[in-house]
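WARN no homologs supplied; continuing
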Amino acid sequence: MLNLFKRDQHKDQQKNVIFDKKNILVVGGAGFIGSNLMEYLLEKHKVICIDNFITGKFENIEILTQFSNFTFLKHDMCEKIDLESMKELEKFRIEFQGIQDIIYLACPTSYKDISKFSIETIDANSIALKNALDLALKYKSKFLFASSSAVYGDAEDILGSIPESYYGKTDHLEPRAAYNEGKRFAETMIKTYYEKYGLDISIARIFSTYGPRMILEDGRIISDFIKSATENKDIVIHGDENSVTSLCYIDDLIDGLLKLMDSPVFEPVNLGQSEEINIKEVAEKIKKLTNSNSKIIFQDIFKNFQRKLIPNIQKAKDLLSWMPMTSLEDGLNKTIEHFEREKVKLSPFNK
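OK structure emitted
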């Protein structure tokens, strides 16, 4: 484990002058987590969002384009980018102020069809990430990386919650390796930039999260269950009546990311809900909240399914004073309301 106190030697890095608000670059900002995060960032900062729309959507950030302190760039970070030469970024005065924070969320993935974006996933965790890290070096930016509980693999040799000290047990040639090993390699790259260049870093290991703007029909239980329930179709649980999971509401995750970004902590930190919940109970709550007539049925676990892990969040509690606060029922209500609004917008009668 890295020495937490070694971080102090990098605090004297020269920073550019901040004229009014911080400039924050969010890579992969048009996705589920990024679009929700930027709503919070825009309350205090200026935000540049970069996305190539492999899995992100313009609809996720459309409302943000109304803010004068927000600019979107459609760009693939596998290609280098010169921020100072772009006319649409002149208002950020990057040549004088630079970029204070870079938040890296870019990593396409499909939970069920794991081969769909396998090459893009490898690129996002290597070439694109290196280009973003080089930008952070250029501007002496704080760099926050969104890692994943996938770095722990299936953790079959662990009972109970997973601490950050667990090294993980993964197969680098198994079907999900592009994502799992990609995140592990990405952490290695970021740690190397810290050690060689003194880059100011944070690594968040994110566990199962749900909320508005989730990807639909991709094997994630909340979005799949809500869609089935609102259409009065069977709610399918891949597993049995004893299957459990961990579910953290998006607002709680964002609170954790912001606290980590503002902290001196550079060791990986788990962010997620530490209390496991029975998946059948989740399905029943969604049925009740949507007044659904759906049946709950059980099917075999689909091919290449990865066991849902429960995080040990003691480090986040101790170092960030963070823990999830949103109840499952409140989080589900907000998520269902969002899905219902989106369904109305997509109705042919509103076109």
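The longest strand covers residues 142-148.
OK
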